[in-house]
Amino acid sequence: MKRGFILGKFLPPHAGHVSLIRSAAALVDELTILVCGLPGDEIAGRTRLEWMRELFPQCRVVLHDDPAAPQAPEDHPRFWQIWTDIVRQHHPEPIDRVFAGEAYGAELARHLAAFFVPLGGRILGADRHGLGGLSSTAVRGDWWGHWHWLPKPSRAHYSLSVVLHGVESTGKSTLAARLADHYDTVLVPEYGRAHCEIHGTDCREEDLTLIGLAQQAEIEAARPWCNRLLIADTDALMTAAWSQMMIGFVPDQLMCHRKADLYLMLAADVPFVDDGTRVYGEPRARQRFDSIARDVLQLTRAPTVVIEGDFEARFEAARAAIDLLIAERRAGGIVADKEPIRLRRA
């Protein structure tokens, strides 16, 4: 039986890592992957451990996140001995082959009394515009430009999400579909509508909780499949507004989820159309509902753009807001920490 070993930060995993590990796994009977992490990493070590286990279920994937370990030979005179001990701590069995795409693998293999197998284009400087030129540093610097080199867990992490928010009959579903088509990406429809068409609109706490949780589950399940940007018809924050309106309080579960990168708050300034599943068409109730929906976004400090006007104006304002989000994220801006931008019809 031949045993192989690979270590790395995988911060984040990319196609170069995937090709190297799959190649290595084909050359041994057992392959161990050591994920190295430090406090303060952009992506937590334990998160990357879960990703690597998802990507390589046939391998043994372990984590080393002790901040005391030196990170480079110049950091400590016993650097190689320390890392030899770390490797043996996680892999007490003899190692036959050490795989790496960089030259350090030769020295590590020598200390482990293993055979070094230099895999991948990086070690030869080959394919600089493809797999051989990939690095996690480059991916972190421009994940948008490296999107096609990212496996699903990395895509789910980096993808941007835009959620339409607002009361009934403000054009959310129509606008969401048009935006998804414009950005050539996936659309997560509204679960609550399907739920109410089947079970009715007389929703209790358990119905509203399920609606919100199901909506979030669908959003997270769709993230790895989106084209950098995910469009959602709604999310649990709108279900929170429905809860406040229908039962007078908000279940805690509706507030505890990954928030979108941008919420498009559609104003209730278009005519109400009753399609059979809508509830609050009376003007005073509609205005109160609109106010509650806005309050939910303010309470959670959600990054918000208010969208008003006719349906064509709404599309143009939404597109401008999303383009700004993309530009700021690509430039390294953190939109979520900024005051909400408010686009209004001239």
Automatic annotation (TrEMBL):
Q: Which UniProt keywords apply?
A: Nucleotidyltransferase, Transferase
Among its keywords, does the record have Ligase?
Answer: no
By its UniProt entry, which InterPro entries does this protein fall under?
Cyt_trans-like, NAD_biosynth-regulator, NadR/Ttd14_AAA_dom, P-loop_NTPase, Rossmann-like_a/b/a_fold
Q: Does the keyword NAD apply?
A: no
State one Pfam family annotation: AAA_28
> From the Swiss-Prot or TrEMBL record, what is one GO molecular function term?
nucleotidyltransferase activity
Pinpoint the NadR/Ttd14 AAA domain residues.
Answer: 162-314
For this protein, the record's NCBIfam families field holds: cyt_tran_rel
Name of the molecule in the record: Nicotinamide-nucleotide adenylyltransferase
Source organism per UniProt? Sphingomonas rosea
| Top-level taxonomy | Bacteria, Pseudomonadati, Pseudomonadota, Alphaproteobacteria, Sphingomonadales
